[in-house]
Design goal:
iron; 12 strands; Cysteine desulfurase; pyridoxal phosphate; metal ion binding; 7-stranded mixed sheet; 3-stranded antiparallel sheet; 2 domains; Cysteine_dSase; Aspartate Aminotransferase, domain 2; Aspartate Aminotransferase, domain 1; binds pyridoxal-5'-phosphate; 41% helix; alpha/beta
Amino acid sequence: MAYFDHAATTPMRQCAIDAWVEYSAQLNPGGQYRSGREASAVLAQAREDIAEALGADPVEVVFTGSGTEANNIAVRGLFRACANERIVASPIEHPAVLETVKSLAVTEGAKAQWLPVNTAGVVNDLGALDAPAAVAALMWANNETGAIQPVAQAVARAASAGTPLHVDAVQVVGKQPVDFHELGMTTLAASAHKFGGPRGMGILLARRSPAPAATLTGGGQERGLRPGTVDVASAVATAVALREAVAEMESERVREASLRDELVRGVLAAVPDARLTTTSPVLDSHAHFLFPGANGDALIMLLDARGIEASTGSACAAGVNRASHVLVAMGVPQVDAAGALRLSLGRTTTAHDVEKVVREIADVVERARVAGAL
Ligand code: PLP
């Protein structure tokens, strides 16, 4: 089987599985007795390791239940912490941010302003950041196309207006260097299962000030931002996975970029009217194609039948006959957007996997176009 959906989730690293198993017997890190203190020390070490890997202070590391939850806590919490009703965000955010902004508009009177995006899927006008807002959100790299966003510029623009900026870095952490202090955003979301840690573990980096207001109520764990007993084993597995991902980041980036380039060359040669959705700046692990006239779900099923696992890249569009919001924001016509395919690479991807896609893609697209014409 050739797995090309690493952007959705990537297999757990062996070091993370080992740590997860080793620490699975840990008890409540909030306990005041010996086993609690032991668990608390293990958790503190994991927090320190993550802080070090991401250029943050340990107190700024908040363990959450997912990247989605980290995004929710930050965007909702920063909005509630400020009297301003404006929110500025890009329209290509993952639903974890996009739907949060939309729901704040419906339930809490937020006035959302969307940043324009060019045809390459990159935010190209940050003007909306010049007026103060309760919170602004800009993802670091888009999960569907891999397009890298102008986060450093957004940090500077938001800072001059006094607006807290949240960055969804779920696709970037473990793939590119991240230094929370140097970059200077207010909050940052990451997700362990994107870099070989366990699923169900997110990281929120949150400065002491301005800090999100608490949106969940409970026992006050994780600075009150994410109350609930922390899963110590998953926290350690996350720290270990992140350390390994950071250590091999550069060599892996180069390896994946070369495989991705080979993949792109092969696919475009096999299907000459295919379009590579975005070129630069883009994550080295992503190749996102449009096959005009093809049916996206048929593409996925036909590839699956040939032992190739990939996705359209858009969770909410899968199985639903609706163009992805990201492609709509980029101005891609509906008929082209219907034939989207994301092939995302990771550390288990081999040259053999790439050859397999290149061998099968022309036939798969031809058949998916028949399905698209029905
Ligand atoms: N943000 C981005 C950019 C993502 O790609 C994803 C996952 O696909 C998420 C947020 C949500 O992360 P999680 O699956 O941990 O909730």
